[in-house]
Design brief:
Elements: E1 5-11, H1 15-25, E2 31-34, E3 46-47, E4 56-57, H2 58-71, E5 75-77, E6 81-86, E7 91-95, E8 100-108, E9 130-131, H3 134-137, E10 145-149, H4 153-162, E11 168-173, H5 180-188, E12 192-195, E13 199-203, E14 210-213, E15 218-220, E16 223-226, H6 233-240, E17 264-266, H7 277-305
Helix pairs in contact: 1-2, 1-7, 4-5
Bound molecules: flavin-adenine dinucleotide.
Length: about 300
Amino acid sequence: MTGSFYDVIILGAGPAGLQAAIHAARRKVSVLVIGQPSKSSAYKAHIENFCCTANQSGKEMLELGRAKAVEDGAEFLEQDVMSIGAGDDHYLVETAGGEKLKAQSLILAMGISRNKLGLSGEKELVGRGVSYCVDCDGPFFKNEPVAVIGSGSAAAGAALTMLFYASAVHLVCDTLDVDGYLSEKLHESEVKLHEGRKVTRILGEDAVSGLELDDGTKLDLAGVFIELGAKGAVDFAGRLGILLDETMKYIAVNRKQETNLPGVYAAGDICGPPWQVAKSVGEGCVAGIEAASYAAGRKRAGRDNG
Ligand SMILES: Cc1cc2nc3c(=O)[nH]c(=O)nc-3n(C[C@H](O)[C@H](O)[C@H](O)COP(=O)(O)OP(=O)(O)OC[C@H]3O[C@@H](n4cnc5c(N)ncnc54)[C@H](O)[C@@H]3O)c2cc1C
């Protein structure tokens, strides 16, 4: 990375984020893409219905997209974003590796998380102790014991957040997969780490009463947070005041891919179905052009006033 203040920061390195990066960078603004191509929905897919590829592997397509974005001037940071916020005249982005970055404009292209645990009881107990969103439901578990399940940055961040509310916080994961900075914060905290363990059962009839692990351990709990992906649309939206659409699952945007916040755009699966590469790159193109134009306008206004 060459700096900490970018004209445009794009969250997500899937088809939407890559196309946004290409269109923004070609307009001569500074662009940083934060995200991991290997975590894109397209990475393990064979893309069979996109007009410009013939049964191409998603991995190959993402590699080509990234190379093109770099050629056009975009920079890349392969990390997860943990939080976004608003400063006086810019947006703030903090990554799981502890980087603190600023941007005139943001493009949210983080896709969707389809990850469920798939255990019996999970679906039935959603809203009755099982949750997929600490930012939404964390405060309901004041002074109660909870567990977070997951091994990535979303899970680690969720466990640390729950320390503000819960009487005890367990983190259950197979192999912890987070950057050094976050791992350090976790190990220094009071989170009880159950590494190398799998959950075999969610306990409880009408509401969650605990978890059973594969070594026979039983944890008595009031809440279970399933965090198997990175932080997604709803988490960020809730924190920054971005409006969701009528389903309350996706970011609401207009035809310019603008959200309700000035300078914040969204593109791809995060804006809702159909979950397709063609739609994602189309929206990414529009978001890239609009974000670059917004950032360039802000810079011009700054120069005229200064
Ligand atoms: C098995 C499978 C087969 C598919 N087949 C097809 C097909 O044939 N044709 C088709 O058109 N579509 C297909 N799709 C759908 C297609 O892959 C998606 O529509 C497309 O990848 C969406 O692009 P996106 O950029 O919006 O999100 P994604 O490609 O999911 O990319 C999201 C990006 O955001 C990043 N990210 C997430 N959270 C964070 C965070 N907190 N901080 C930083 N980065 C973050 C991820 O690391 C990733 O880089 C398939 C999907 C699957 C799962």
